[in-house]
Amino acid sequence: MTEPFYEMLWDCAQCGAKGLLGVSHRHCPQCGAAQDPASRYFPEPGSEVEAKHHRYTGVDWRCTFCESPNSAAAAFCVNCGGPKDGAKDVKLVADGPEPAGPQAVTALKPQPMGSPVAPQTAFPKLTGKPPQASPTGSLRWLTIVVGLVFAALAVLAYQFFTKHDETVQLADKAWTREVDVERFTSLSTSAWCDAMPGDAYQVTRKREQRGSKQVPDGQDCRAVRTDAGDGSFTQRQECSTRYRDEPVYDTRCHYRVNRWQVLRTDKLAGNASLMPAWPQPLLAGPPAGSMGLSGGTALLGADRLGSKREQYQVTLQSAKGKQWTCKLSADRWAALAEGKPVTLKVRGTGGADCDSVMQ
Ligand SMILES: [Zn+2]
Ligand SMILES: [Zn+2]
Question: For the structural domain made of 163-175+311-358, what CATH number should be given?
C-alpha cells in the first residue's frame, strides 16, 4: 500500500456519540450499537486520523438482516451472524465542499431477524426546501406573452408582404453627384515595425506593449478524498497550474508616409429642370506624375480626382396628400416624366415598394 488510509468518522444514532472512527469503532464504544455506514463522513481538513495497520480488503457489505457494515473479508455478519450471500456494498460518501456531518440520510428498513443492538432509528430527515409557489402560474404567463409577441410579428410580416397598387403623382425629382478631391499628403502615423510600409521615412522606434501572454505562476492544489467504503478513506493532492498575464513588448515604428487623402468633396445637385452633371473641381498644386521624381511619383501638395458617387430620388404623392420618397437607378429616374400618373405598390405597413415604381 503506497497511500496511507485515514479514518472516516461516523455518529451514533442510538446514543448521539459524535466523531466515532470508521475503522477502529465498528461498534459505538458508548452504547455498543453497530456502525451505520450511511452515517459516515469525512473529517474536517487538518483533523484526519490515520488508520494505522489498516489492511484494505474492499468495500464493506451491508448485512441484509441487521444493516450492519461488515468487512469484505468477513463471510458472516459480525453483529448477527447472518450470511454475506446477496448482500450489497455500502454506499460510498462523496467528498463535498463542506465535509460536515452525514450528507445523506437513508431510512432503515425494519429488520426481519430481531437483534438487540441494531440501530432502528434513522436520523431526523434533513429539511427540504421550503414550499414554493407553483411554477405553473408564471409559466402560463410566459406562454401568453410569447404567444402575443409571435402574433404581433405575424401581423407585421403579413402587412409587410401584402401590397396594394396606388396611383400617385410625381411631386419632385432630385439628383446629386459628388466627386472627391484628393491631395498627396505627408501623414504622421505608426505601426508595428514588421508591418511598416516600405516608403516610410523619418522613422523612430519605441518599445511598446503589443499584447500579453499567459505564463505559469505556481500551482493551485487541493486534497481529493476518496471513500474506501470500509470506514477508511484515502487522500491525494490534485494540482493545476495557475497562470498570470505577462505583457509582450515589441518595437513600434513612428514614421511619416506620403499618401493620397480626401481633401474635400465637390457636389452638384438639381431637380428635373437641370440635367445631371458631374462637378468639375479645380485641382491645385503641382500636377500629379510630372516633374523630377521618377516613375510618375506625385509631389507633395498635388491634387487629383478621387471617387465619384451619384444618387437619384423621386418624391411621390397620393391624392390624399401622403408622400413617399424613393431612390432609383439613373435610367429609371430619367424615364419618369413629370405630370404623368405613376403606379406604386404600397405595403400594409404604409411603406412604398420602390422597385415597383412604374409609369
Ligand atoms: Zn452509541
Ligand atoms: Zn447482521
Answer: 2.40.50
